[in-house]
Amino acid sequence: MYHIDIMTLFPDTVGDVLSESILGRAQERDYIRILTHQIRDYTKSKQKQVDDYPYGGGQGAVMQADPLYQCWNHICQQHQTKPHTIYLSPCGKTFTQEDARRLAREHNHLILVCGHYEGIDQRFIDGYVDEEISLGDFVLTGGEIAAMAVADAVCRLIPGVLSHDACFEDESHWNGMLEYPQYSRPAQWHGMEVPAVLTCGDHKKVERWRRKQSIIRTRDRRPDLYAKLDLSSKEDQKLLSEIQAEELQKPLPLPITCTPATPEAWNEISWPHTVPMPQHSYVVWHGPQPAACLSLTPLAAEDDTEIQDGKWSAQEPSVWLQFHGQDPTLTHTDLMNRVLSCVHHVGQELGFSWVRTATDKRNKPQLAYLKEAGFQYRGNLLHGNARQVAYELRLK
Fold it and tell me: Which CATH fold topology does 256-394 show?
């Protein structure tokens, strides 16, 4: 049996929450035991006082060391051992799923100390606490909410508490990824349908879809976790290619327009972009909001940028396309397709025969967009100090 003892000023509240649902049934079946202890029962004060003013002055009151110690010592004597003791504090290490796994695996008895969230006597911490844990970078009025979260996260990993290991192994954070979307009956609700793959009956297709959705969710919502993922397997590489191809076609909800840039509009763009505004610049708008910015610099036939190991199709007047930034929230949409369509239209209106550009050969998404828009590869060139690949699009 896995034991958790919680030292708190609000034992009924904490105990009631942790005695319901899955954890309540697990306690009835003796997989876990969660007990709460009223810290006030261990003070020598007739008024049941457990805190006092801090030495050195300051706001608030500090929980005294002795009531905490007496409560802690009583728990140790009951079990004739020294359990692993955790103080819930904003100064502690941020609690993660890996911490829950560690505590479930390495210990069979925890004491969770819920004091004033930013104030218990440091001497109790130094003498009797094994680690401090925080839920995140914020402050609570007490440690009870944090203790309940830690107890819940740890207990559900104890064998027998959940019906099967897959109940938590498929969930967010177990393998460094967020969980895939979940659906239930009915299949149609408020005009929205369950993805067809989930009703096809093919378990391999379902698992593949779920893996893909987990990758997308982790990338979009937790880029910090996504950066640590190992997606080098052949199957994951196929999924990444599919995701990229699908997102090239994800339509934007609002109309796209392109207008010559003004310094005022350029300076109001909130996402990263080239400053100051280059000459011959344009802003691409998604509805009323700027979505991308670029420049189309006219080039005479003799001004064509020289390609080192290839050549342009003809020495004719052209415009040189250069991208200067785009709204990062629109990255996984068809924005670039729409932008290149605007470029095509503006180039024709200006009376040029070609749109020419160059990009880093490592920028795979950009290269894919150019190819899809009909741009043709023409070789390598040195643009500025960077070696790039040249592309051109015939306008007429």
Answer: Aminopeptidase (3.40.630)
